[in-house]
Specification:
Blueprint: H1 6-70, E1 91-94, H2 100-109, E2 113-116, E3 132-134, E4 150-152, H3 155-163, H4 188-191, H5 196-222, H6 234-252, H7 256-267, H8 271-306
Parallel strand pairs: 1-2, 1-3, 3-4
Keywords: Nucleus, Ribosome biogenesis, rRNA processing
GO cellular component, one term: PeBoW complex
Protein name: BRCT domain-containing protein
């Protein structure tokens, strides 16, 4: 048979390409509805997820707004939680630059009354009962200055909430260098290091707790004549003296027995348990080294501040 001519071969290839193009168009048309349906399903899933996240927050805002409108402007959420009463009685005005939604939410949850510059506010900046102005800029508006109210930055709200006590507003004045924001999820005792500001907050809480109980202590002191101590049973006195003598005696002895028991227990460990123990000791040592570095850094900062 004679070989096909070049012209016939070219014509055959052209028809083949045309057929393949028609098949591709048909397949694309068939897949288009499926792709559109899949895209619509993805959008619906995204909308549903967004709605699931937004609905609880929207309901919370709505409930707080309704409670505020029905009452006198103060809202108490979860009376059994100490922070729920933390800012009760405070009348806080938010400056225009403060992110209102979430700051207002926290303030209302802590029992404060909240005002802002805009529709829906219960009071404006001229209200004489305002106790705090929340400002998030170094310069203060003339409408806020010269008033019988504290000027604070937004961090004061969250630090006070985390500490469970109203912190000094002077540390959070507009334009001031803010104290470190301490995480409420860090266990300082477990970490082995307590930041200086955490210690200061603890002292503030202790002073306020002592002030709250001072009245009860004074009342109890009035029942006991001055210079008179309560008598203790003779047996208790002798027992306390014996305990003191025993403690003094134990302090004088070197703790070689405990060290020996520790070494003996270590020598009786299996190879696997010993490796695990050594890794634990290594981790503890690394944590201690970190604590030592933090303490040294703190010591240098405090020394530079005194200089």
């Amino acid at each position: 048979a004679a070989a096909p001519s070049a012209k016939a071969e070219k014509k055959r290839l052209k028809s083949l390409k045309k057929a393949m193009g028609a098949i591709a168009e048909r397949d694309a048309a068939a897949e288009a509805p499926e792709a559109t349906a899949a895209a619509n399903e993805d959008e619906e899933d995204d909308d549903e997820a967004t709605g699931m996240l937004a609905a609880p927050l929207a309901n919370a805002f709505r409930s707080l707004a309704e409670a505020r409108d029905e009452g006198d402007g103060a809202v108490t959420v979860g009376a059994d939680v100490p922070q729920a009463q933390l800012m009760k009685g405070l009348r806080v005005f938010l400056a225009r630059e403060v992110p209102r939604e979430w700051v207002e939410f926290v303030l209302l949850a802590l029992g404060a009354e909240v005002g802002f510059d805009g529709p829906g506010s219960k009071f404006d900046a001229t209200d004489a009962g305002i106790t705090h102005f929340v400002v998030d800029r170094p310069t203060v508006d003339s409408a806020y200055s010269g008033r019988n109210a504290d000027l604070v930055q937004p961090q004061w709200i969250f630090d006070s909430c985390n500490a469970g006590v109203l912190l000094p507003a002077s540390k959070y004045a507009p334009g001031a260098a803010l104290p470190p924001h301490l995480s409420p999820f860090v266990d300082d005792e477990k970490e082995g290091y307590t930041p200086a500001y955490a210690e200061e907050i603890q002292r503030i809480k202790s002073r306020k707790a002592a002030g709250a109980t001072a009245g009860d202590a004074d009342a109890d002191a009035e029942d006991v004549p001055a210079g008179v101590e309560e008598d203790k049973p003779k047996g208790e006195v002798e027992e306390e003296d014996a305990d003191d003598d025993e403690e003094e005696g134990s302090k004088g002895k070197p703790q070689t027995e405990e060290e020996e028991q520790h070494e003996l227990a270590k020598s009786m460990m299996g190879k696997k348990a010993k490796r695990l123990y050594e890794r634990m000791q290594h981790g503890n040592q690394r944590r201690q080294d970190k604590v030592d570095r933090l303490r040294e850094k703190r010591r240098k900062i405090e020394a530079a501040g005194r200089a």
